[in-house]
Amino acid sequence: AQSVAQPEDQVNVAEGNPLTVKCTYSVSGNPYLFWYVQYPNRGLQFLLKYITGDNLVKGSYGFEAEFNKSQTSFHLKKPSALVSDSALYFCAVRDLNYGQNFVFGPGTRLSVLP
Amino acid sequence: DGGITQSPKYLFRKEGQNVTLSCEQNLNHDAMYWYRQDPGQGLRLIYYSQIVNDFQKGDIAEGYSVSREKKESFPLTVTSAQKNPTAFYLCASKSSGSSYNEQFFGPGTRLTVL
What we know:
The structure holds two protein chains of two kinds.
Chain A: E1 3-5, E2 10-14, E3 19-21, E4 24-26, E5 31-38, E6 44-50, E7 56-58, E8 64-68, E9 73-78, E10 87-95, E11 103-104, E12 108-113
Chain B: E1 4-7, E2 10-13, E3 19-25, E4 31-37, E5 43-51, E6 54-57, E7 64-66, E8 76-78, E9 87-94, E10 104-105, E11 109-113
Parallel strand pairs in B: 2-11
Antiparallel strand pairs in B: 1-3, 3-8, 4-5, 4-9, 5-6, 7-8, 9-10, 9-11
């Protein structure tokens, strides 16, 4: 079975500082990994994905994520946080050996303090 | 929120009533999904459809029903058998052209049982 963990319910960071939102996964085959962001009372917006190739993936709004196969992690990063980055972030995994569906983590709430 | 619309934005239901949530997409996507979001639990899959006139149960299908008569539409009915329906409901779609494609989400419907 496939699963996703986001070990931190909440991450607080000062504006201008680098941010990291953590994600670890468990799959039986090759993982396809995704990050989404959700603003209050809105749907999820796609940020970036890892399929294969370079372990550092760049996405929307200056976000990037680093795939680490040995640690089964896919942490989301941004060099300089903005107050407008404050939102709920979801990591998701898709394992084709398991079927057609995505499994989402519980979400991490990011608060960027001015 | 791309080319996916959900209506209504807010919905109130009395106990014992069935209600139907609308989801329409103009992205020409084959696959459509319904998720339920509760605080701290991430997204849980209710039903999904890979093609018109076919759909499959997800992890929490009990008390819900769907139809897929048109490619563009995937309505969800919350029946009186669903014991705790108050939640935020998200519809998503995905192109079937590649296994690596991400899902696109609608803006969501917040259902409250009175």
